[in-house]
Design a protein that fits this description.
It is built from 22 helices and 5 strands. Strands 3-2-1-4-5 form a 5-stranded mixed sheet, sandwiched between helices. 28% of the residues are buried.
Length: 492
């Protein structure tokens, strides 16, 4: 079979065409054609199918542009579907909806009509949002978004991306968060833990509403803060180099006109400042890289080792803090105050790996090795060397072990970045905020939870909505759920 696959890959396009023609002609069996060309029978059938498709396209009758392809039944219910769909799917403004209906359908509607239809849809969406059972959510992601100067409190299910909280508020203090979390708890929300940044109001509100339920730290924000420090120090180092070069050029131009060597006396301090700036930038870059790639990476060492590495990085930053206190201190303090929260995900992962070791009767170091193997790209020789070594050690248990470890890692979130993604999607709907007011968030929350993914890097999400992923149950189209009537029959 390997020989056949290799032969198919090397077969020129002209030979593939000839192979398809011979197969269509039926002059000899497919098995003989496959053997003669060094390919598999499946490959021959694939080329035959391509040739048939090309022939069908070539001989199919051309359809003129004026031909009627299909007909739509235009009813008041269907027009209401269009009015609601255009702002949500196409991000159209009210006036855009009016123009679309006028120019393409010959229907005249007013801005007030568009507003009334969307208001009715919003009320229905709010009722559905409030009636949704949230008991399926195991890990919640919390964050505070801002639309202009207005805080928006957001909560998202880590597994399904279902948004269970999206509310504009005057404040983002503990009382405000606590009220909204109690409302979510009344709908069955009892996550095992949540993930959030270091916001004091958010954490105090969760503690007031849910007691001692854990709130893990968000690695996304702290990593971004560290990368910001690295970029700033790199720019300062580059600036020191530019100043030294400029001074060197001035000395060259001055020549004999600088008898006191005043410029030359400034050169050595400039070189020392340049060296110190580049050394500091390089050291901090290395420390932040270790933090991201070794300490806070999902595939990494056990929790105890991560804590030691974390403390080492904080100590090294503290040692360099006097060189640029204003910039280094905020990052060092943030890391020092959040260590246990930021590393909480590692404790969760350690427990899952220990359970895998017991379930498969495999030594924990080998399970950890399978975890660390995920750090290497599959295109690297080191990955496959580790793969073969681990497979030799675990034998027939290897594939089940590797699959279990992959699943455990996928089920161990570390950040609330899904909420940041939600924020970027909300920004394109500002026209709804101007027209519908604060209630537009209820409509958007409903739409985003019930709209099916057209594409996703996660294969299990494609063609499903966040609600379907969360509950495991199918539901009608979101326009139908809003009481706007059934969709038109789907065209083939």
């Amino acid at each position: 079979m390997d020989r056949c696959v290799g032969g198919a890959a090397k077969l020129p396009e002209s030979d593939r065409k000839d192979l398809a023609i011979l197969a269509l002609a039926g002059s000899e069996p497919v098995s003989d054609l496959a053997a003669r060309h060094g390919v598999s029978r499946k490959f021959v059938y694939q080329q035959t199918h391509k040739a048939l498709t090309a022939l069908d396209d070539a001989f199919s009758p051309a359809v003129p542009d004026s031909a009627v392809l299909f007909e739509l039944t235009v009813t008041k219910a269907w027009l209401r579907q269009v009015i609601v769909a255009l702002p949500l799917i196409c991000r159209s403004s009210y006036r855009g909806v009016v123009e679309f209906l006028r120019d393409l359908l010959g229907v005249s509607v007013s801005l007030g009509c568009v507003h009334d239809v969307l208001q009715a849809a919003t009320r229905q969406a709010s009722a559905i949002n409030q009636g949704q059972d949230l008991s399926c959510i195991r890990v919640g992601l919390h964050d505070e978004l801002f639309q202009g100067v207005t805080p928006v409190l957001a909560g998202v299910d880590a597994a399904s991306t279902f948004c269970y909280l999206l509310a504009a508020a005057d404040r983002r203090d503990a009382d405000t968060w606590g009220v909204h979390l109690l409302d979510a708890a009344a709908q069955g929300l009892q996550p095992d833990y949540t993930i959030a940044d270091a916001g004091q109001g958010l954490r105090a509100g969760q503690k007031a509403a849910w007691g001692d339920r854990p709130c893990h730290g968000d690695v996304f924000h702290i990593q971004r803060q560290g990368e910001g420090l690295v970029n700033t120090l790199a720019r300062l180092a580059q600036g020191a180099t530019s100043r030294r070069k400029a001074l060197h050029a001035r000395i060259g131009r001055a020549g004999q006109h600088d008898p006191d060597h005043a410029l030359a006396a400034q050169l050595e301090p400039a070189r020392e400042a340049e060296t110190q700036a580049h050394r500091l930038a390089g050291d901090v870059r290395t420390l932040v890289h270790w933090l991201r790639s070794d300490v806070l990476a999902l595939a990494g060492p056990a929790l105890a080792t991560r804590r030691d590495l974390f403390d080492f990085i904080v100590a090294e930053l503290a040692a360099r803090e006097p060189e640029d206190t204003r910039r280094i201190r905020p990052v060092r303090v943030a890391l020092q105050n959040q260590r246990d929260r930021l590393l909480a995900f590692a404790g969760q992962l350690d427990a899952k790996l220990a359970e895998i070791a017991r379930a498969h009767a495999i030594a924990e170091p080998l399970v950890r090795e399978a975890c660390v193997l995920h750090r290497l790209p599959t295109t690297s020789p080191a990955h496959w060397q580790g793969w073969n070594r681990l497979r030799a050690q675990t034998g027939s248990k290897f594939h089940a072990l590797f699959t279990a470890v992959s699943r455990a890692m996928a089920d161990t979130p570390r950040s609330s970045s899904l909420v940041e993604n939600l924020n970027s999607r909300l920004r394109t709907y500002f026209t709804l905020r101007r027209h519908l007011g604060g209630a537009y968030l209820d409509l958007l929350r409903f739409f985003l939870n019930h709209r099916r993914f057209l594409r996703s890097r996660h294969a299990e999400r494609r063609g499903k909505s966040p609600r379907e992923l969360m509950t495991g149950q199918a539901h009608a189209h979101w326009l139908t759920l809003l009481g706007l009537g059934p969709l038109q029959p789907q065209r083939a």
